[in-house]
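Standup notes
- DV: blocked on the single-chain target, sequence here:
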Amino acid sequence: MIRLLYNLLFPIGLLFFLPGYLIKIRRRGNYRRNFGQRFGLFSGEVRASLAGPQPTWIHAVSVGEVAIALKLAAKLRQLEPGFRCVLTTTTTTGFAIAEKEAAAWMHVMYNPLDFWPVVQRAFATIRPKRIVLVEAEVWPNLAAGARVRRIPLALVNARLSPRSERRFRRFHSFVAPTFRCLDLVCVQERGDIARWASLGVRPEAIKEVGSIKYDPTDLGGDMLLAQRILGSYCIDEARPILFGGSTHPGEEEILAGVFQRLRAEFPSLVLVVAPRHVERTAEIVARLRQLGLRVGLRSAVEAAPAPEPDCLLLDTTGELRDWYAVATVVFIGKSLTALGGQNPAEPILAGKPVVFGPHMENFASLAGSLLARDGAVQANDADALVASIAALLHDPARCALMVENAVGVLAQHRGATQRTAELLLMVRSRVDGSGGVGK
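- DV (later): unblocked, structure below
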């Protein structure tokens, strides 16, 4: 009855949210390509490419989740000869990264809307033998469709923010049937088991494996790329670099102010900013120039580089991890002017000290552990940022110790990718009380 109501109301909700959604994807660019896949419309070429052995369907919303999906898929390929997968994503940026990084045995598509007729067409085209959802994407029709077809359904690297947990608890009777469809939920920490079970997931389906995001493996970054771009702008790689990773609106201006104050003490300091959404490039450039900074664009180096800038703005996607290796201190975005925070693991694994603001809700446990072990610095405002970053720039030995401590915090997640992949290969669909992991 609940799902019937959901499907009756879905078209109304779609019409209500569609204008804003279209504006958003248009702003991000490249939205026309494969747009029909969002509505379960697949070309003959796509259908032909999926006509072989049944693939694993992995769904990852955007860039961060795609990175997890690619890491997990590579491990599954190691463990299961002939492994094939369909990787679906929601955002155009996620699609671009997935398409760029995908191996030949992976097929990248847009995820279909969770409307019953659309989901039906997707199942008929993809014909998955298992479905893997990354972090938080559990949709009612997709989950019900998997259950009816006896297709194992798993949620990996399961993430439950305080805000999402409150919302799910408020609508427990609506979400519990969907969560009961999950045959496997791989959580990051022991404390997450009870939280997911309280939302309707069967306790025996929940396994603590650690975080794939924090699993200390080779990042595969290309430091030479960053060095080449810096060299093209006549920026010596030995100069200290303040790096703002995945920044959100308002944070670029704060970092610019911090940078200008630090330049009085560190005249060779360079600011490099990687905004979370590159479609904001023109807006960011205008605001930074109003503050008196000379701004260079990473993309412009391919044409004719400008004179040495004060701030280099990364207006391309898929290169963030390539840049961490050349940073001196990394500021974690979405932690000052927005709620949630971004993932601090990649810069830590690249050997860089990290500083973040007061809002790390999406990584609360990790942030707390880093602070407790002196593996990161938290700064609540611009003044604190200036003091914290200056202290780190003055003390390379402290930076090295912070990184060592932070890597120690991440060590508990070593092997998470392997453990998750092994569980996925054992999972079976639970129908009428049977099945489960390894049964």
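- Follow-up: The longest strand covers residues 241-247.
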